[in-house]
Design a protein that fits this description.
alpha+beta, single chain, 49% helix, OB fold (Dihydrolipoamide Acetyltransferase, E2P)
């Protein structure tokens, strides 16, 4: 049982650094196996089988949940033409941060922009907004 707890905690700790949600499912499966071993005497092959089955189930179910959550992000084309607020000032062309709705974005502008001023999104490239002052 202690081995399954160790494996589960290591996988969950690694997930914190990767943030891919991939190791999360295996870590949870290992902790569930640890609980089952605590409650019932299970042989090692049965433990490995349960771990494999749970990992697959959690992965397939979790993938659907993560996909649904990520699909709620706005389509990039929908952002073009929308307005945001500059969170930084720039004196010449360069990078800055803007907020559009409740989301913070990296952006760049070819024109000077003052902090707090409204900007318009003109294009998007690699999750970086190109903005111009209004």
């Amino acid at each position: 049982m202690n081995l399954w707890i160790f494996i589960g905690l290591v996988l969950l700790a690694l997930e914190i650094f990767t943030t891919t949600f991939f190791l999360l499912f295996f870590g949870i499966a290992a902790l569930v196996v640890a609980l089952l071993v605590f409650l019932f005497p299970l042989s090692t092959p049965v433990q490995i089988g349960i771990f494999s089955a749970l990992s697959l189930l959690f992965f397939l179910f979790g993938k659907k949940v993560v996909k649904k959550k990520s699909s709620k992000l706005p389509d990039q084309d929908d952002l073009i033409g929308k307005n945001g607020i500059a969170l930084e000032s720039i004196e010449t062309a360069g990078p800055l941060r803007v907020i559009v709705g409740d989301t913070h974005w990296q952006a760049f502008s070819k024109s000077p922009i003052k902090k707090g001023s409204y900007v318009k999104i003109v294009s998007i490239s690699n999750l970086t907004l190109e903005v111009e002052p209004l």
